[in-house]
Amino acid sequence: MRKFVAAKHKHTLMHYGYIKIATAIPNLTVANCGYNIERIEVMMRQAENQDAQIVCFPELCITAYTCGDLFHQQALIEEAETALHNLLDKTQNLDIISIVGMPVKSRDRLFNCGIVIQKGKILAVVPKTHLPNYHEFYEKRWFTSSLHALDENIILAGQKVPFGTQLLIGTTTFRFGIEICEDLWVTIPPSSLHTLSGAHLIFNLSASNETIGKNEYIKSLIAQQSARCISGYVYVSSGFGESTQDVVFAGKSIFAENGKIITESERFLIDEQLTISEIDIDLLKNERQMNSSFTQDGFSLFDSTPKYRLIDCEILSSKAFHLTRPYSPTPFIPAGPVLDARCEEILAIQITGLVQRINHTKLTKAVIGISGGLDSTLALLVTTLAFDKLSIPRENIIGVTMPGFGTTSRTLNNAKQLMKSLQCSIREIDITEASLLHFKDLDHNPEIHDVTYENTQARERTQLLMDIANKENGLVIGTGDLSELALGWCTYNGDHMSMYAVNSGVPKTLVKYLVQWAANHKMNQNSALTLKDILNTPVSPELLPKNEQDDITQKTEEIIGPYELHDFFLYYMIRYGFRPNKIRFLATQAFHNKYSAADIQKWLTLFINRFFSQQFKRSCMPDGPKVGTINLSPRGDWRMPSDADKTLWMEIDR
């Protein structure tokens, strides 16, 4: 077995695919361009000092957005260009890419533009396309839409620069595009075309005033657009210093990535704000690669494919190693009140899947092995609720508890008490004698507690369940979960097999939350009390003998590692296709207060080993409902050869 190669040096965030972004909301003075660029320069330097590679400012920040008819004053427009020239001179020594807003005149037309600058040079000028002219907005009074631009290049601050909306800036591996405020609100935002043409990240320079409920609506627009475009989306809006004659600007920054808001700033501050976070470009690229609908006929709605110009620039190599954005150690479990709704929805999916299978087979009995553990408990709850939905008597559910060498009084009593409280039919079949007879047939010493000792019991239990189902004309309901399938922590042709596996799409870390939710919302008091004790029972297959104190000795997580780590590894390996070194890096960020780097590497090694070696079990797993974005069914989401080589994944620093 090849070992992980120890890291010889720390990588930068760019090695892991991140771009560090800053948004800056300076305090402005309306129509005082000199003062405004002083504040912009200060915040540019602050952003670079904090290792940001790109910093974006609000719409028209050099003049301020609320100048009104002063935009028709020649003095203001000329002063804005002079101020830009001064800003370029003062920041020639800065590597950071900065995006600022100002009015730009071209062919006697005035455009509301985003200006991309770096090292004293203007890289691109992007004019606004959609000009709001309703309610409090009068932009068509002052500005012209980019649709009426006549030039592809203009002279600005003494430099000849690219001009237009179809400009993508970046390197050969990363590109970003720009849209301005109202551009996001229209039916087909420019960013849709930007991303179809190769932009991974969109910056929106905005000056959106506050009204009741508007902030939540803007967040939903940003999240949805980043999801549709499978992109990063960084939004920054004007704050303190804009005129409050008729409206108020609260100043806000919002960072989104593929449909999720990852960072946002506080609103209504009177101080300047610099907000920094990272966008995972690797994640976006992999998601686009897997999503075959992203570019398929992407331009079919348009008369012709827009021709974009690619503007090359240097991306400052961030020296930072620590992420500023948080990563949850439990990616399968949403935080906050949404968890209740998620649990309800998952149970509904599981129940509906089983209801359809029962309708199709015309079988009205179910057989489940009940161990007193979490997985079999969840399967029993799902089956009970499915039978209720079909108005089938619960007594048609045959719960079978099969104590063996490792079964403790606690788990056995919990199994029987749960079945009793749910009014299921209860059967108890001790497998000890049958297992000893099988050992005798195999000429196996029962004092040798090896894989034969364990798997004999698992297969004996499955055989009983299958035969009872045949006799009773019922379905064997599988209890194994998604995490066990990933690790192959199941006995081939033992608990690996069933007639419908209701838990096969549920990761282990989520199982207990589903059981807890069912206990609180769907069960009677007696059932809820038993469920609470089951929730506090250590995870174990109970295949090794218990100790003299009648306690569990075989604790799964002591053998194969913490399930919370394995679920974390599973999520980022399968959902986003991340390299092992990036998964390790993210795990050290998410679990920095709980597991050492050595422990994370140890369990990641085990995870990869088992994931590759145990694919043969997943290749013939029974039917079961998909409930989340990750599923390992060979008929659905995961098609992997059982003899694939793991060498590449074991080179962690590759």
From TrEMBL:
It is an enzyme of class 6 (ligase). It catalyses: deamido-NAD(+) + L-glutamine + ATP + H2O = L-glutamate + AMP + diphosphate + NAD(+) + H(+). Gene3D superfamilies: Carbon-nitrogen hydrolase, Glutamine-dependent NAD+ synthetase, C-terminal domain, HUPs. Pathway: Cofactor biosynthesis; NAD(+) biosynthesis; NAD(+) from deamido-NAD(+) (L-Gln route): step 1/1. L-glutamine binds at residues 134, 208, 214. In the C-terminal section; belongs to the NAD synthetase family. Catalyzes the ATP-dependent amidation of deamido-NAD to form NAD. Uses L-glutamine as a nitrogen source. This is Glutamine-dependent NAD(+) synthetase. It comes from Microbacter margulisiae. The gene is nadE.
